[in-house]
Amino acid sequence: MSQPIIYLHEPMKEEQVEAIRKTAVDYIIVDASRDTAQINEEAIEIMLGWDKELGQRLLNSESSRLKWVQSISAGVDSYDLNRFSEKGILLSNASGIHSISISEHVLGVLLAAFRGIQTSINNQTTNIWTRENISYKQLSMQKMLIVGTGHIGQQLAAFAQGLDIQTYGINTSGHVTKGFIECYSQKNMQRIIKEMDIVVNILPLTDETYQLYDETMFKAMKPGAVFVNVGRGPSVNTNDLITALNDGQVSFAALDVFEEEPLPKESPLWNMDNVLITPHISGLTPGFKAKLLAIFTQNLTQFLKDGTLAKNQIMLQHGY
């Protein structure tokens, strides 16, 4: 049998590749960004990052030796999780890497809305000095519902509490989580959401979270609530959100992810004064490669020892 391969679809620095090579001495390390020679695809056992075309071939091959894929993102909704499960392939994500970046992003867009900063930026583009169209509110003591209490949600709660924001959480079971005044199960979300001034979506995309934010959910919100989405675009019914924004049921929305990306130029969201659009940048993180490598190396060491993963393993049946 040919020597097994670790396939690096995510470009790494030479010293990072060498660190992987020293950890996995019995493997051939293929860096897709540098190595252009033909390889034996069937010998790939581990993949860092996901090459969609190559990955699909391996998933469809009866002779593939693929055993584990390390995703570079926290969300894994783009993977064929059923096929992974059928073939017994492990999948781990990059959860935890983006926590600080996304938390800072959420607070940044909230301050832009609450302190009139977005309006001032718009006025600046036309050389207008005025306070007449600037609205402002106090961010402290607002009730924030963080929908998703994992690494990112907990980090956001910690940061938000530094501004005296009252943080509440939604998770699958309603289990108590550090940093939250109270947590509730997703099935009770409509009951509690009516009390919240700010709703922040950080959920992964699953069958249960697809189109979670629809007309019914928006109508259940406190009138004039602020909505932030840094989770997944398809969790939101865009047309229903636009209606809620036009009706004032949602007073402001900061959106970093969308049902369709890039957001189509004809989308009404572009021209709405009460919407702040960012192009899926909330997770951009300084030193990302080094942080990803730390997760991958820890998992690689464990995998080589006994075929299991040390952290961030995806429960394929749940999708997260």
TrEMBL record:
It comes from the Bacteria. The keyword NAD applies. InterPro entries: D-isomer_2_OHA_DH_cat_dom (IPR006139), D-isomer_DH_NAD-bd (IPR006140), NAD(P)-bd_dom_sf (IPR036291). Residues 108-282 form the D-isomer specific 2-hydroxyacid dehydrogenase NAD-binding domain. GO terms for molecular function: NAD binding; oxidoreductase activity, acting on the CH-OH group of donors, NAD or NADP as acceptor. Residues 8-309 form the D-isomer specific 2-hydroxyacid dehydrogenase catalytic domain. CDD domains: PGDH_1 (cd12155). Keywords: NAD, Oxidoreductase. PANTHER family: 2-HACID_DH_C DOMAIN-CONTAINING PROTEIN, D-ISOMER SPECIFIC 2-HYDROXYACID DEHYDROGENASE NAD-BINDING DOMAIN-CONTAINING PROTEIN. This is Hydroxyacid dehydrogenase.
